[in-house]
Fold each of these.
Amino acid sequence: MNVLWLQSGGCGGCSMSLLCADTADFPAMLKSGGIELLWHPSLSLASGRELITLLEDCRDGRTRLDVLCVEGSLLRGPNGTGHFHMLAGTGLPMIDWVRALAAAATHVVAVGSCAAWGGITATGPNVTDACGLQYDGDRPGGLLGADFMAHGGLPVINVAGCPTHPGWVVDTLMALAAKLFAADDLDPLNRPRFYADQLVHHGCTRNEYYEFKASAEKPSDLGCMMENMGCKGTQAHADCNTRLWNGEGSCTRGGYACISCTEPGFQDPGHAFHQTPKLAGIPIGLPTDMPKAWFVALASLSKSATPRRVKSNATADHVVVAPAVRKTRLK
Amino acid sequence: MSQRLIVGPFNRVEGDLEVQLDIADGRVTQARVNATMYRGFEQMLAGRAPLDALVIVPRICGICSVSQSVAAARAIADASGVTVPPNGVHTINLMLACENLADHLSHFYLFFMPDFTRPVYAPRPWFAEANRRFAALAGEHARAAVAARQRWFEIMGTLGGKWPHTLSIQPGGSARAVEAAERIRLLAKVREFRAFLETTTFGAQLEEIAALDSEAALQRWHAADPMRGDLRLFLTLAADLGLQTLGRGPGRTLSFGAYRQPDGSHALADGVWSESLGRVQPVDTGAIREDATHAWLAGDAALHPSEGLTAPMLDKPGGYTWNKAPRLSGEVVETGAIARQLASGQPLIRDAVARCGANVYTRVLARLVELARVLPMTEQWLTALSPREPFFHADRLPADADGVGLTEAARGALGHWVSVRHGRIERYQIVAPTSWNFSPRDAAGTPGALEAALEGAPVQPGEDTPVAVQHIVRSFDPCMVCTVH
C-alpha cells in the first residue's frame, strides 16, 4: 500500500510522535504491515526535484496513491489564495497540491487535529484561515468539502489528536492495508472508533479521587483534576489512559489536565485551559452521558463520604497517607 | 555562465524550506532563504490568559516542543517572580535534555547522514558502509537509532506524560513529582541509551569522547580504528569530502546557556563566542533586534522583541520569506550545539573552530560531543532528586507584568518575551534558533548566517538540488516551523 505523507500548517509533532511507535524496528513494522512509504518529510531521502516528480506522478496517476496522509491544517488565507504556505520549489499553494492529490488517492487520512479540524493553528483570530481537510472546526466542509468521498469509498479519516498517538496512526494504516477498515469503523466525526469509542477517563489513575470528588487544587497535586484544573477526561473521546504514551505516560499521569485534544474546537474552549469553568460551583462540562442532577447528587454524596486518606493525598504531590493495612485475609 | 536555481522542498529539515541560489562558474554566488509557511502564533497568543501559552507554544514545533514549553514557563515565572524548587529544576532539565539529545540523534541518523548514501558518492571508499548504516528507512544503524530513541523518550512518558506537547512544565516547576522507585527505572532507561551511544554511535565510552581535548587527540582516536562507531565513520567521510570547507558560519555564535541549575548557573554556560577575538563575551539580550525589511511582515524598524510586532503583509516590497532577521548588536550570529560547546569551553570544539571555523564538519562534531557530555549529566540530575520534597511552587501572576524566558533548544538559543496587561497577554514575541540561523537579509543588506554560508558552495553540472547545498543546510539542523511560528 503506497502512502504519501505531506505536512502543512502544523508543527510536525504527529510525525515525531509516530517515530515513538512501540516497536523494535520501525521501518520493518511498516513493511511487514504492507505499508510502503512513498515519501515522508522526516524519513525519506528524496528532496527538491526528486520529490516534485513524485508528487506529479501521484497526481497524474503514474504512481498509484493508495493513501494520502496530511499532517497540519490547511492554510486557505490570505483571501483564499493559500499563500500562507506555498510548497517550496513549486510556486503553488500547498492547498492546491492537497486538493489534487486527494482527488487521486484511494484513501485520505487527516493525521492530527490540525489536519482533521484546523486545530491549534485555527485558534483565536485564525489569521491564516486554517481548516481541516473535511471539517472547519466542528462544521463539515473544510478544504475538500462536506461531500468529499475518496475513491476507496470513505470520507477523510480523522485520526485526531494533538499530537496523535503513534498507535492510532499505525493501526489505521495497517487496517487500511489489510482492507479491514470500513465506513462503520468511523465514529460520527469520522474518527476511527477503535480509539474514539473510549473516554480518556477510562483507566485514569486518579479514578479513586474522582469517585470521591477529592480534587487537585494546584499543579503536582495527586487529586482529580475535573473540579478545578480544567480536566475534560470524562468527556474527551480517546483511549489515552488504556493505551499509554511513551511507555507509561498520559496527560493525567503527567500531572496535567486533559484538554480534549481529539475534539474539534479544543483550541478555543472559551475559558483558560487550566481552570474548570463552573456555574454556581458546579462544573459546566459534565461527564459524557451523565445527567446533571445525578452528577450533582453523586458529587455531594461522595464528597461527604471521602476517606481521610483520599482527601489528604488529593492535595499532596506524593502519597502522605497510605491505604490501611488490615491484618486479616481480605474478603 | 550564471543561472538561478530554486531549490525545494527540502525534507529532513523540520517544516518546509526553499532556497534560491544564484550560481556562476559552478559556485553559489548569492543565496536567499525562504521559510515558506506562516501560522501566526504571536497573533494567536495576544488576548489569551497567560497560562494558555503553556498549551499553545509547545505546538509551535513538534520537535522542539519541550524547549518552547520551557521558554514560556520561564517567561511567565520571570513575570510572576516565582522560584522553582530544585526538584523542579532537575526534572525540567531532564525533559529538556531528553528532547535535545533525541533531536541530536534524529538529526545525525535520520536527517543528515542519509545524504551520504546518494549515488553521487558511490565511488567513495566509505560508501558501502555508509549505505549499510544510514540509508533512509533501511540503514541498520538508523533503524537501531529510532528504536533507541523510542526507548529514550519513555523518560518523557514518565516525567511529562507524553512527547511532544507536555503540560507538566509549569512556571513554578514540574506538575509531575517523581517517586523514589520511578527514579530507579528512569536511571535504567538512561543507562540503556548510554549503551546504544557507546556501542553504536561512538564505539567508546562517553567520558572518553567528552575528554577529547584537541583535534590532534581526536585524530589519534580516529586513526586507531577508523570505521568503528558512527562518529569515526563520519570523521572518515568528512575528511574525504572536505566538509570543513563547506558552510562557513559568521564567526560569532550565541548561546543563552543550557540546563540552568538550582544556583542559577548553567551546566553549559551562556556566551557569545567571537572567532576573531578567540574568546567568549557576555550575552546582552538588550542588544537583540528583529528586522522585518525582507520579511512579508509589516514594519521596517528593527525592534527589540519586548516591543516586537508580527503582522503579515504579503505584498511587502523586498519581502522573500516569512522569517524576520534577528541581529545581536547589529550583527549576524549563529546558534546551536556548536555555540553551546564554544561558550562552555569544550576544548576539542574550540580547537577545531580555531582551525577551520564553524562549518558542516564542526557543527556535526559539536552535536555528537554534546551527546557525550550531557547524557552523564542526566544521571547526576536524577541522582540529585529528593523524592517527597516539592517539585512545584505555586505562583500568582500580577495583572500587569513583563517577562523574558531564555533557554537552549537542540538547535540553539530560544527566547520568549511576554507582556501581560489586565490579566491577559498583550504581546508575545518569540525568537527561535533557526530564526537566527536562517534569517533573511537585514536593512543593511547583510545576508543571514545560512545565506552567507551557502556562498561559494560548489554546484556540479546538471545538479538541480545540489548535494553540497543540502549538506550545508542540514548541518544547521534547521527547524522551519519554529523559525516563523
Amino acid sequence: MMWVNFSIAVLLTCLPIAVILARTIDPGTPGRTACILGYSLLLGIVGITALMRIFNLLNIPLSFWGLGGAWAAISLLATLIPREARPTRDTAAMPKLAPSVTALPGKLGIFITVVCLALIALRLYSLGLESLLRPTFAWDSKQHWGLVAREIFELREIRQYIGRIDWLEGDSSSYTNLHPSYPLTVPLTQAWFALALGVWDESAAGAPWLLFYVALGSIFYAQSRIAGAGIPLATVGTYMLLSLPYLNIQVALPGYADLFLACVFLGAVSSLYNWGNHQARWQLGLCAACAVICVTVKQEGFFWLLSILPAVLLIRIGWRRSLPVFAFALVLVLLLLFFLPPTTVIAGQSLEAIDLRYRPAGWQPIYFSLLVHDNWHLLVYLFLLALPTLFVLKDDLPLHAIGLCLLCAFGLYVILFIATDRVSGAVTYTAINRVGLQLMPSVAFFTLQVFSSLANQRGMTLSSSNN
Amino acid sequence: MMRLFLACLALTAMAAHAREWGADELQVEIGSGKLGASGLVLTPDASGRAYVTFKGRYIDLNSHTEWRIETDTERPWETFIVWQTRQGGDSLYQYKIPGPMRYNPIVVSTQGVKNWQGNAREFGLGFRLPAGNQLTLRGVALKPHSIVNVVDNWVYDWSSLKPWQAYDINLYTGTRRFGEGQHPVTVFAAASILALTLLFLWWLLHRPNARYVLAGAGALVLTAWIALDLFWQVRLWKQLENTQKTLGGKSTDERIRSSKDGAMWQFAESVKPFVSPMDSRVFVASDVDSKGLVATYYLTPLNTSWNRRGALLPDANQFRAGDYIALIKPTAFVYLPEKKQLRVAETVHLPVEQVFSSREGALYKVLP
C-alpha cells in the first residue's frame, strides 16, 4: 500500500508541469518524453514544496490529500491553457538541429545503446535497493536535512528555525538546529513523500534521491538529443553520467542536498545551451526556472546562478560586446569585496566568517578529488581535453557560453577551497566532492556537446538525423 | 601484439620463483601449535603472542616482495615479518604490517620496506591476538614481484567488498583504504592517454580520414570508461549483497535496531513519552558527537537543541523550569541523586529530577 501511495505521489508531483510541458514542447522534438519526465519531476517537486509553504502561511495543516488535491487542481488548470498561449512557434527554430545522419552504424549503434541501457538499469536497481534497505545513514541527513524533514512531517507544519542563541531566549514555538538558515526545499521534498506514505519510514526517506537520479538522467538524455545527439550517443553520455561513483554514493546513501542541486544546475545549463541553439522560449523558461531554484536548494546555488548570467549575456550579444561588460563586472566584484564591510552576508556567509585569503593547502585535495580519486571516473580528464577543443569550435557560441558558465563555476569552486575558511572541507575531503557533484553533471553535458560538435564538424555521423 | 604481451608476462613471472612453506614446515617458537588437517593451529601465550619460524634456500629479497599468509582469520591484532640476512654478518630485521593489502589470505608487500634487501633464508612470523583466540596457519608464500601479481592485487583492491562506512559519503578513492594502493583512475587515464597518443601518431603517419580517428578515440574512451566502471559496479553489487545479508527481510524498526544506531534509537523511543508537554525544550548532550547526533535525530519531533561545537549545554541561567536534558553516555555532566542536582560546571549545579535512565543515558527535567 505504501508503494501505491508513493507512486500516486510521484505521478501527482509531476502532473502540472508535465501537462504544461506537453502542451509547450513540439511533438517532433527529439527526446521529448524524457524531457517532460525529467523537468516535470524536478519542477514538480519544487512546485509542491512551494505549495506546502503557501499552506503553512495560510495555517492549513500539511496533509497529503489536501496538498495533492490542490496540486491536482493546478494540473487541471494547466490543461485549460488556451492553445494560443502555447509558444509552439518557438519550436520552429528546431531545424537548427545538426543535420541528420544516423547515429552510429545500424547494429553497432543498437548494440551500444542496449549495453548502456542495461548498465543503467542494473545501476538503478542496485542503488535503489541499497537506498531503500538502509535506514538514514548520512551524517548531514541526521544533523540537518532529514531532521528538519521529520519535524515538518511529524508536526504537519513548518516551524520557524532560528539560531541557538535566539532559541534560548525565545518561546518554544520555534525550533533550532545547527544550520537554521539553510533552505527548506529538500526537507520539504522528503516531508511531502512521507505525507504520501502516511508514516515516516526510515527506509523510504531516501526515495526522493532515486527520483533526482532519474530526473538527472532524463534531462541529460533529453537535452543531448535536442542538441543533436543520436540515441546511441545520448544513451552513452547518460550512462557515463549515471555511472559516476560519487553520484552513485549520494543515491545509495541518500540524505544530502547536493544531488538535487546538481540536477537543477544541469537543468539550467543544458536548457541554456539549447535555447542558445534553437531560441525556443520554453528552453529559456526552463533555464530561468532552474537557475532561480538553485538558490532555494542550497546556499551555493546563489553562486551557480551568478555563473549562468555571463553565459546568457554571451549568447545574447556575442564575445566582442560582452567582453567589456565582463571586465567591468569583474572590477566591480573585486571593488565590492574590497570595500564591503566585513559583516556583509553573501549566500548565508559573512565576509568576515569566510576570511578571504590564500590557502595553498587546498590545491592538493582539489587535485586528488578531481584527477586521482575515482569520484568522477575519467570525466575531469575529458573535460580538460574538451576545454581547449573549444578553440576549434569557434562558431559555436552556445557551447562557448556554457563553457564560460562552467569555468566561472569552477573558478568559484577553486576560490572556495583555496581562499576561504572552507579549505578545511577540502583538506578533510568532507565538502570538496559534494560541491564538485553540484557541477559535474553540467560538466558531463558540456563535454559531450564539445566532442559531439567536433565530430559533427569533421563529418562524423553521431548526430540525430533526418536522412 | 597479444602474444608479445603474454610472453613478457610469462618471462617476468619466470624470472623469479615463488617460495612456499606448508604448515608442517613452520616451527613454533612462542605459544604452542598443533598440526591438524586444516593447518597449524596456533595458540598464543598468556600475553597473546605467537611466533613461528621457517627457512629454506637463500632468496633474493629485492625480487621477492609479496607475502601471502594463508590463515583462517580476518586479521590478527598485529602481524610482524622477521627476516635474517647474511649481508654484513647475520642481521635480524622485523617489519610490522601496517595494514595488509588484502585478507584471506593476508597479502603484504615488502617492496620499499627498510632493510628488505640482500639475501635471506630464515624468516619468522609474529602475531598478537586477543587473549584466548587461536589462529590457524595453512601456509606462507613469498612471491616474486611480477606484473601478474601486481595486477592481481590491483583487481582485488579495486573490486573487493568494502562495506559502507560513515566516511564513504564524502569521497570514493577506488581503493579499499584511503591513501593506500594504486588508484584505478590514474591507471586507466594513463592507459587511455597512451592509447590516444598512439592513435594520434598513427593518424600523423597515415593521414586517414579524421572521422575514423575520432571514432577510434571515442571507442577507446568508452572502453576505458566501461572497464573502469566495472570495478565500481562489482563493488556496488558486493555492497548490496552485504546490505541484504544484514538488513534484508526485516521491518524498518528491525533494521534500525540492528544498525549501529539501534541503541540510540531505542533510547530515544523510550525517552519520548516522558517529555510533556510535547513542545518542551530538550537539550541533548554527549561527549561523543555521533551519539548526540543520532539521539537528536530520533528524538524528533521534540523541540531539541544539540550543539556540536562549543558548549554542550548553555549556561545554567538559560535553563527554565520544565526544560529537559537528555544526557547520552559518555558525558562529563554528573547527576547527584541525593541532592537532585546536575553538575553542569565545576561549581554550577542545576536542580533537576531524573525521569528516565538506561544504559545509554538519562533524561532529566529541570526543576524551578
